[in-house]
Amino acid sequence: MKKSIVFTCLAAALSMSCAAQTIERSKINNSEIKPKSTIKVEKPEVSKADYGVYRIMPDLTVSPVQVTDPEQIVAVSGSEALVRKATSNTENTPLLTPNTVVKNTLSGELGVVSGNLLMVVQSLSALSELQSNFNLSVVSQTNGSNLVLMKAAENTDLLQLIEQVKASGLVKSVKLDIAEKRYINR
In terms of pLDDT, which residue wins out, 77 or 117? Predict the structure, then answer.
């Protein structure tokens, strides 16, 4: 008899608890809870790229770490430091030349244009024509293939050079070499 009274009491307590939860749920469903504020999410600003995903940083330059004032250094990559220029000429459209500092618009990493162009030439005989017509020098060439790494002259506008090389018909493809930090998924 005592057991049945205990079970009856437990059943009654359980049913009262369920009824209380049902009442609370009905209050929620009847919209008694109102949002306190609206969250506004701003879209990140996407900057226009100058070459592929890279944007030219006209206010930065490359300098050897050993001779650079530590207070002026923005970033260090090996033995080179990226530093702010004393005066920035941002009025004119900046040229993409060797040692130009660029920023990857996707990763935000800074990089330096090496001035090297990786090319797949139409034929090996086109190498001498490329060297003479566009003032390029061969850095490296693979044996038996048409893959060539060539270096442009120091003050050459590389965007204009790439367009001229493509238009010449001497190459199948041209890619500009940019030294930057790369992230690899592991």
Answer: 117
